[in-house]
Amino acid sequence: MPQDAIADPRYARAAPRRAFRLSWRDPTVRSVVWQIVIIGLVGFVVWWLVANTMRNLEVRRIATGFGFLDREAGLPIAEALIPYTPADTYARALLVGILNTLRVSLIGIVLATILGTLIGIARLSQNWLLAKLAAVYVELLRDLPLLLQLLFWYALMQGLPGPRQALNPVGSVYLSNRGIKFPWLVWEPAHTAALLALLAGGAALALLARRFKALQMATGVRPRLWPWALALLVGLPTAVWAVMGAPVAIDAPVLRGFNFQGGATITPEFTALLLGLVLYTAAFIAEIVRAGILAVHTGQWEAAGALGLTRGQQLRLIILPQALRVIIPPMTSQYLNITKNSSLAVAVGYQDIVSIANTTLNQTGQAIEGIAIIMAVYLTISLSISLFMNWYNARVALKER
Amino acid sequence: MTPPPAQSATIGATGMPVRAEGPRRPPALSVGPVGWLRANLFSSWLNTAVTMVLVYLVVSWALGLISWGVLNAVWDVPGTGPRVDTSACRAVRGEGACWALIGEKYRFILFGLYPFDEQWRPALVVAIFVALYIVSAMRRFWNRWLGLIWLVALTAIGVLMWGGVFGLPFVDQERWGGLPITLILSTFGIAFAFPLSILVALGRRQTAMPAVKALCVVYIELIRGVPLISLLFMASVMFPLFLPEGMNIDKLLRAQVAIILFAAAYLAEVVRGGLQALPKGQYEAAEALGLSYWQETGLIILPQALRLVIPPLVNTFIGMFKDTSLVLIIGIFDLLNTAKTSIIEPAWQGFGVEAYLFVSAIYFVFCFAMSKYSQDLETEFNRHRRR
């Protein structure tokens, strides 16, 4: 707009204020009336449903409220991350369910991200065969219902031989219809201490990296980080573990009678669910990653190369930060999808929150409370993931002036 | 750097430039199939190694699949019904597929418990559905007649499934199953969810009506925050409590309502994307013409906004089609559930892989067709952007 146009007094004049009229032609009146009508209708329907429900609950003598949470659950749970027996309360059973949901979702998110990224990059490969195979994978897995895939994997797991004829691919890893058995460390305090040392080392490394970056900004010279990383992430935990006596006791599975004793187990239910979730979601993530990389202009690679950056630096410092901006919003919804899709666990018998809440509502007859619990848990998880990813998105978003 | 040979060839023996005899052919190794192989499969040592490993994996996997699915497969077993003898299948378990299961059970998997002699009716219904999809996909039918076509087709489907008129015996809804259920749930789900989603998306953009906007936001976020299963459970165990005594809605319809509510929330977000992508000038121009809100929306905004989001809409439709399989969990006999049920008899137990591969093929055909269609549309709509 030219400068003199702003000076024109006609532009400075506010729109004329129209007097309020009680007429259907007045937008304010219309919007108020419409809102009253719509809210009234919705309110009426809700009131009608609630009134019906109250009457039905009374007639059928169904208890209300969350009093049942303190009662003994009496439902057996095959795999629990915290100590649990059927004699525990419903509240604890539900907590076990929530932890199981979180476990499969978190592992699923990590694995699907890795696999999806690899497949997405493979689809862009110069190698025609690799690119085509990745494309076939994506097209095939995306176009089949997840539930079908879960049932398929579960049928495949159940088709494995029994423990006595278990497949034995390497060492003392056994594959049978009871799940995957593998040797695992006998857990001792030294291991916990080493894990804590690893966490502390990671935190220290993050601080150090920030300090080095400040140093680079101030002096133009970046000190070497990787020796520190090695010392803090590998050296420190090993040292702590060695100081505490370096215990190594391996508990290997051994066939006794009709089943295995010892070792760690991954149940067929968990394997089928995780496999299904990861393979299905990886197909979607691959497409997101591919789109993200394609969205970065080739000139960016060339410019980065002209600055003398190595191929790895180009990817890490120039391409990825720009691709991430395109990738993160759709990736967030995929993470939410994994979490919500983990509710299909109920179909293969993995006891997640939906499965346990469903058993609870069947045992107590309190359907409303049971479903309210399921919804509250998922809304909380969804909201937390959205908040975290929004925070991360804001961090990597384009910083414009 | 040495000069390329093509240049030196144009210099004659006397040092004078002579006319080259036409353009020279490129080296034999860089054109034709050999050139293509060199460029796309063996361009470097790493690429060659990757190709070799992949070829080995693909070939060994394909050989395994052929030996399992064709060479060692059992195509037929003696006996039928409860007196079937599946020992031939059990003998090759793990080495060969048991396609006899499909031969014996395909009618059940496709049509569930629908009376055997009347199964031409659901078969015809499936054909009508497919024809309906094809007609809806063709752009020459994108006019006011499409609504009428849908109305007629859906009525015909209802008549065929229920019967009771035109001399067709009545078939109770309890006996419906298989592919028609999957198609009914997804088609009716989309047919009702789509208009609802447009209303919700429009409601969400009403800044002048905060109460309506808040209502729409709460609806969308609430539905999108919970898994479909919880809504289906709600429909199956909670919904009967919502209704006054004596009023009863059957399970299929309750599941259908849950799917409509679920789909509408996701579709609303897609439609909202289209509404937001439209330049503000379109809204202002429509207002300047003196159009009312509904005229503006129906004549100016929606035709443009919906056109923008057709590819993501089709993707959401694909998602909904796949998600109808979740009704298995509340015990409705859709295509996936009939496949799961077909292997429940002791004789057929353990042949789940074959049954699931069979229904996978059906799901894949439908989803792949939709997916290809959406990709083609996207290319066509973006034609003006390509150079």
What does this structure look like?
The complex is a heterodimer of chains A (401) and B (387). With 401 residues, chain A is mostly helical. Chain A has a domain at 90-138 and 268-396: Orthogonal Bundle (MetI-like fold), CATH 1.10.3720.10. Chain A has helices at 3-7, 9-12, 27-59, 90-123, 128-142, 146-158, 189-219, 226-243, 268-295, 298-306, 311-341, 345-348, 353-364, 367-396, and strands at 174-176, 179-182, 184-185, 250-251, 254-256, 259-261, 264-266. In chain A, strands 1-2-7 form a 3-stranded antiparallel beta sheet. A two-stranded antiparallel ribbon of chain A has the order 3-4. Chain A starts with a helix and ends in a 5-residue tail after the last helix. The mean pLDDT of chain A is 84. Chain B has 387 residues and is mostly helical. Chain B has a domain at 177-385: MetI-like fold (Orthogonal Bundle). Chain B has 16 helices and no strands. Chain B has helices spanning 5-9, 32-40, 45-71, 87-91, 100-111, 120-137, 145-162, 179-204, 210-225, 228-242, 251-277, 280-288, 293-308, 310-323, 335-342, 352-381. In chain B, helix 9 crosses helix 11. Chain B starts with a helix and ends in a 6-residue tail after the last helix. Mean pLDDT of chain B is 82; it is low at 5-9. The chains are: A mainly alpha (401), B mainly alpha (387). At the A-B interface, helix 3, helix 5, helix 6, helix 13 and helix 14 of A face helix 3, helix 9, helix 10, helix 14 and helix 16 of B.
Residue share in helix of chain A:
55-70%
The H-and-E topology of chain A, N to C, reads as HHHHHHEEEHHEEEEHHHHHH
Describe the main β-sheet of chain A briefly.
3 strands, antiparallel
Q: H/E series of chain B, N to C?
A: HHHHHHHHHHHHHHHH
Radius of gyration of chain B: 29 Å
Could you give the order of strands across the largest sheet of chain A? 1-2-7
Structural class of chain B: mainly alpha
The CATH first-level class of the domain at 90-138 and 268-396 in chain A comes to Mainly Alpha
